[in-house]
Please model this.
Amino acid sequence: MGFHILVLDIPSNGHVLPKVGLVDELVRRGHRVSYVVADRLADRVHRFGAEVIGYRSADPLASLAEDDPAAATSAFFRENLDILRAAREHFGDDRPDAVAYDEAAFQAGRILSRLWDVPPILLSVSVVSNAHYSYFDHIERLVPGHRLQDPVEEITAALAGFGLADQVEDFLWTRRQVGEFTIVFVPPRFQPAYETFDPDQVVFVGPSVEKRDFLGAWDPGRAARADGTRPPVVLVSLGSVRNNDPGFFRTVVEAFVGQPWHVVASVGDSLPTAEFDQLTGLAPNVEIHRWVSNIGVLEHARAFVTHGGNGSLLEALHTATPVLVVPPAPDFLPYCDTVRELGVGTVVAPAELTGERVLAEVAALVGDEKVQHRLRDLQEHTRAAGGAPRAADAVEAYLGRR
Model:
């Protein structure tokens, strides 16, 4: 007899997509998966057999562009309350066997698991924190004074309505640590202080990057020249959130015009149409997409120019592709440290980005045999972590012990 697992998630491709492999695996094994997700992303999980519980999102991701240190934590807490409300209204007195939730939906997940008295499962698509390592402390070490602020009064008042006012510390972003059974979609060597996490509580399964072709499959034949030869491919992307940067795309893409490279740029939905059209018409060796499967391109690419988001970096490790990272905000800087420590790429500050620098850094990475060797080693390590099948094994084992 299968389990009924409820998943709570935020309205972000970068958070939903890493979990679709797990959803598919659980459904194929005979489990029932219900998934609370914003209406606009419902198709992402419905296609893999999940029962979708949609809700109207207030778009908390927009708050990431604000300077107010409490803007994002406030917006995401209110989004968590909307997620929580959608789940409670849908299920009423019915109860799943477990509540699994994204790290950015941890407030809704922890409230719901305690109200319903069902096992919690944290599903983290990025690195996690404990008493030995803190992602937020890491950012502040790199950018002194840059620290999020929790809306403590708002959180306390809301928790009081659920009889949880004495547990405020468990619901603060800036104090967040793993306290429940956790599946982390990163490989062990990508996680700082990996050895300090209890393997019975925290399972590092690596990325689950399959099942992405619905984003837009890429045909490597598009890189072929008229004479049939194929130049090396470079993928350019700023991820799914902070991608409205015409200057970045113009600088990077124009650098490769007339060069012996084929450029594939995935620019997202935020780039204005006029900018999109200008980039599209630049040169025959340039192709511009709103969305394309990164993995589909990286399987054929020699380099990846990226913002350095967790998901993009793991895709690069999965395909052994060197990265040139241009971090758009402080929250990407801890990952830049990891790139340097692993020796798989180069970091360039946005203010130092020029076309000449892009070409020089990409050429250096592609030509460095030590980088290539490290990437092949990390690719093996990343794939050996287990991905979606191991995540499903861990869920079944955990619930089987309850």
